[in-house]
Amino acid sequence: MTERDERLAAAVADVQLEGPETLLDGYRTVEGWTVRLDAGSKGEFVQHREVMRAGRCVAVIPVDLARGEIVLIRQFRLAAHLATGEGDLVEIVAGRVEPGEDVREAARRELQEETGLDCAGLVALLDFLPTPGIVDEHATLFLASVDASMLQDEAGAADEHEHTRPFAISIDQAVAALGDPAARNAYLLIALQWLALNRRRLGELLTRGAP
After folding, report:
1. Interacting residues of 103 by C-beta distance below 8 A, sequence separation 6+
2. Can you tell me the distance from the alpha carbon of 127 to that of 34, in angstroms, rounded to the nearest whole number?
3. Residue extents of the structural domains in the chain
4. Which of 86, 133, 169, 208 has the fewest Cβ atoms within 10 Å of its own Cβ atom?
């Protein structure tokens, strides 16, 4: 295992916080905060920031090793539509962890809801913060073993008005696409980069993560 380089690690910050003030209580909560921090030779900084509270999330890379495939989904995203005009995004399975829910169970639930598939093995890979400049979203990425032959044409949680269109593509084709990336969202790019680095270890990792 590679030795951890602390120069790249996040650290606890010496700051004083004032807040929060609830600015919006809708699909997501948006809060206003005042931050006071020591900026060294520049003295004390005072920042006024808005934070969208998304909380704990999970993401899943579903792979079928027998077929050499990864399962992805298509889903409409309003923010992407407004940003680029191309809101019909290709994504990996992902979603929020419900209150009191274990992250592993959340990963299994999201996989079933968004693809209709159950997993034979599940292993946690890494944690990441997709957009820490404005959202407190904290995601755990999982690798899951699935049978892609059981894939549904459409899926999604009905009570969330969610509509997903799952599909399978070869792992090699998905990784090769990083050379001229059509993918736009961070979750998918992180997943494909991880696959590119760990393609030969998938069987070993899923065997270790089997229930």
Report:
1. 56, 58, 97, 124, 140
2. 27
3. 6-53, 56-209
4. 133
Contact criterion met (CB below 8 Å) for 74 and 53: no
Predicted model pTM: 0.91
So what's the pLDDT on residue 1? 55
- What is the pLDDT at residue 39? 77
Q: What is the mean pLDDT of residues 106-132?
A: 95
For residue 177, what are its two tokens?
């696409």
Amino acid found at 182: A
- What phi, psi does 207 have (nearest 5°)? -65, -40
How would you label 53-78 residue by residue, b for 16+ Cβ within 10 Å and e otherwise?
ebebbbbbbbbbeeeebbbbbebeee
Top pLDDT among 162 and 128 is at 128
d(CA 28, CA 52): 7
What backbone torsions phi and psi does residue 193 show, to the nearest 5 degrees? -65, -40
The sign of the dihedral angle between the CA atoms of 10, 124, 27, 153 is positive
Structure token digits, residue 10: 């996040």
- Look at the block and give the residue holding tokens 């690798």: 143
Q: Does domain 56-209 have CATH number 3.40.50.80?
A: no
Distance in angstroms (rounded) separating the CA atoms of residues 76 and 13:
37
The pLDDT mean for the chain works out to 92
